[in-house]
Amino acid sequence: MGSDEATPAPTVGTLLRRGATKRCPNCGAGHLYRGWFQMAERCPRCGLRFEREPGFFTGAYLINFAITEGFLFVLLMAFMVWKVQRPDAGIAAPLGIGLVLAVVLPVLFYPFARTIWSALDIAMHPIEPDEAADAAAASAERPSPG
């Protein structure tokens, strides 16, 4: 699909939109996960290998961390405004909310971070001809559905 010469490369916006919706950044196919944490090695449609090099998904961890820290920062700022308006209010509820968010948010965002990172990487380092050939070969080996 996105690997043959006639199809233009997706724009950065398209790549990011696909990544944010857990789709293949290259062709837009879905169903990339076998479970919440287990991503397929290749795209089921175009055959793109997602882990382009060893340690590839380290960037996804950075994205996941940054999103979590961003939410916690917003929560902290909201708590500070709330505390200024109510100096006698306790901190147990906001602290509990922060702890729950710090644990739950990275788990919920994990698959999105991986596909967003794949999209960002393709935007920064476009698919090489050898990767496209490998993807096309892998895609051709798959039996067609139906």
Layout of helices and strands, plus pairs?
Blueprint: H1 12-20, H2 58-85, H3 92-124, H4 129-141
Name the features.
single chain, 57% helix, 146 residues, elongated, 4 helices
- Helical amount: 55-70%
Count of helical stretches: 4
Radius of gyration: 20 Å
Which structural class do you get from the secondary structure elements? mainly alpha
Shape: elongated
DSSP strand content: under 5%
- Following the backbone from N to C, one meets helices and strands in this order, namely HHHH
Number of domains: 1
The counted number of beta strands is: 0
Average pLDDT rating: 90
| Low-pLDDT residue spans | none
How far is the first residue's CA from the last residue's CA? 18 Å
Structure report:
Helix content is 57%, strand content 0%. The chain has 146 residues and is mainly alpha-helical. It has one domain. The relative contact order is 0.21. The mean pLDDT is 90.
